[in-house]
Amino acid sequence: MSNELMMRKRLFKLYAANLPFYLDDKSFTGLFGCPICMRPFSEESILPETLEVNLAHIYQKSLGGKLCTLACKKCNSRLGERYEPHLTLEAKMHRAFDGTGTSSIDGFINWQGKRIPAKMNMDEEGRNVVLSPHLAKMPEVLALQAHLKTNPTDQPLHLSTNFPERQRQEIASLASAYLMMFREFGYEILRTTDVDEIRALLRSDDPPAEVPCAITSIPCQTVMTAPGELAHTVTLVRSADGMCFWGIPLPSPVKDKPLRCVLFPGPGKKGSEDYKAICRVRTGSVQCKCTVVPLPPARQRLVDAEARYFGVRVWNEMTGQKVYC
Ligand SMILES: [Zn+2]
What we know:
Layout: H1 3-18, E1 32-33, E2 40-41, E3 53-57, E4 68-72, H2 73-96, E5 105-111, E6 114-120, H3 139-150, E7 158-161, H4 166-185, H5 195-203, E8 216-220, E9 235-238, E10 244-250, E11 259-264, H6 271-283, E12 291-293, H7 301-310, E13 314-315, E14 322-324
Antiparallel strand pairs: 1-2, 3-4, 5-6, 5-7, 8-11, 9-10, 9-12, 10-11, 13-14
Helix pairs in contact: 1-7, 2-4
Bound molecules: zinc ion.
Zinc ion binds next to strand 4 and helix 2.
């Protein structure tokens, strides 16, 4: 049996055992519910022949993510096709313009009504356009080269490239945060106020003009972990005005920069108050100076169950104090 199939089996059992705690509908017994669309799936759906349910990377694999949970094929592909490429593009852009000149992104030089493909980056001298060798024989490229030879180069060239869309980037971050919450707490997260709105966003093919405030992504230096790695924990984050949120640290796409921390509405009764507080953080009317507080022990049902399967540890990254081991 392949490693991936073994992991799918373990996760399937884990979530199928967790689901009945949260759903009164007994027809779900022994089934897995996709955390995004909540469609029920039987154990056959994880087999290679059908693979209707597959591993879902919490932070995308192409950016170094290793942690997994499960989601249905349809939801997985929607995130992979419509949203995650915008996070990848963001990371690529940062690498291309970091001044080392070692990575580049594809772009165009707009010249005399033509779009001439070029690689763009920035080295330490600030040069930022590279005409790739494989383009050397294109008539437009030859014409541009001839033009640059015979004309002073101090006139600016117009460059264009594809920029990541901010809303899609935010939804990709939200998906990571949501899947991380699901990994840690299982179906408990369905009790979180406003989670329906988050799931509706993750099920949409296109983002709304403005991503609602259920998500905000703040630079977070209080949750420490190595750049490029996802902290193996979800933390409670308290804002300056005392409101608590779930804080899900995500790696920054920029090396050596602080992590991002996606704030999630708090669980339980206080959910909508927390949601309002997130809106205030988002609109800038609250200065969000976040500190990390330990997880309350009551929210550990899946972690307890999961520990039996995986030996997961949960700890407060700030204090190093083990919350669950
Ligand atoms: Zn689904």
